[in-house]
Amino acid sequence: MANECYELKCSDLGTQCDYVAQGHTKDEMMERAVRHDAEVHNHKGGYSDEEMVAINAAVIHNQDC
Ligand SMILES: [Zn+2]
Predict the structure, then answer these.
(1) Is the pTM of this model over 0.70?
(2) Cα(6) to centroid of ligand 1, in Å?
(3) CA dihedral sign of residues 51, 16, 29, 7
(4) How many angstroms does the Cα of residue 13 sit away from the middle of ligand 1?
(5) Domain coordinates in residue numbering, the chain
(6) How far is the CA of 11 from the centre of ligand 1 (A)?
(7) N or C: at which end does the chain have fewer Cβ atoms within 10 angstroms?
(8) Sheet holding 60-62, edge to edge
């Protein structure tokens, strides 16, 4: 479990962007994804329930990376 990681592809959320947020915990990955979204896509102010469902559905959990 030591090398597990989480990934979230920006393009899976409907963008033309090739950014992939990665982290060894979901929180770490989400922190990077949220910062990327704010800096690159100017998305600030949080996420709706629908957006959170889409985000959670797009998260990839790798056991080894
Ligand atoms: Zn992006």
Answers:
(1) yes
(2) 16
(3) positive
(4) 9
(5) 5-62
(6) 7
(7) N
(8) 20-23, 5-9, 60-62
